[in-house]
TrEMBL record:
Enzyme class: transferase
Binding site for Mg(2+): S14
Binding site for ATP: G10, S11, G12, K13, S14, T15, R120
Name of the protein this chain belongs to: Shikimate kinase
Binding residues for substrate: D32, R56, G79, R143
Localization per Swiss-Prot or TrEMBL: Cytoplasm
Cofactor(s) required for function per UniProt: Mg(2+)
PANTHER family in the cross-refs: SHIKIMATE KINASE, SHIKIMATE KINASE 1, CHLOROPLASTIC
Pathway: Metabolic intermediate biosynthesis; chorismate biosynthesis; chorismate from D-erythrose 4-phosphate and phosphoenolpyruvate: step 5/7
Gene responsible for this protein: aroK
Length: 172
């Protein structure tokens, strides 16, 4: 089985994905890291040198590649992945994997993202908590329609142990 973790940036997809993979002995893949490895460039540099359109096309290509790969996998996606280039059709119309939305509040996301904003191209320019909450709120409003198509929705405002216990109960 493939387990696909979906949610806004900062929702814990990579952290929870790694921990879940270890817990249930399934390989973990972070789509952004996979893209960086394949493109031999950081996401930040891809955005900077080739633009978002190029990035989204490559993201779609590598997502298809991973979804078609044999074997089980815990896969964490980028926050925008479900929203671009018909990725929605790839993600939500297949019974060979389960999609999981890690739902985190705007306030919690803004708090988390303000700390690590330098490594995230879409928010590196934001300087205050109020600006971050506005930015996150707007994007989350636009993206939630995609995220909510996930088979499983988890309240990820909780601690990692609680989230993992709930995921294991719901998925296995």
């Amino acid at each position: 089985m493939k387990i696909i973790l979906i949610g806004y940036m900062g929702s814990g997809k990579s952290t929870i994905g790694k921990a879940l993979g270890l817990l249930v002995n399934i390989p973990f893949v972070d789509l952004d890291s996979y893209i960086e490895e394949k493109e031999k460039q950081t996401i930040h540099d891809i955005f900077k040198t080739k633009g978002e359109v190029y990035f989204r096309k490559q993201e779609h290509f590598y997502l298809k590649e991973l979804l078609q790969a044999d074997g089980p996998m815990v896969l964490s996606l980028g926050g925008g992945t479900p929203c671009f280039i018909n990725n929605e059709k790839l993600l939500f119309n297949n019974t060979s994997y389960k999609t999981v939305y890690l739902n985190v509040s705007v306030k919690e996301l803004a708090d988390r993202l303000l700390i690590g904003k330098a490594s995230r191209p879409l928010i590196s320019h934001i300087n205050s908590l109020e600006e971050m909450q506005e930015f996150v709120g707007k994007h989350l409003f636009e993206r939630t329609v995609f995220y909510n198509k996930s088979e499983v929705v988890i309240d990820a405002n909780k601690d990692q142990k609680t989230i993992l216990e709930k995921l294991v109960m719901m998925l296995f």
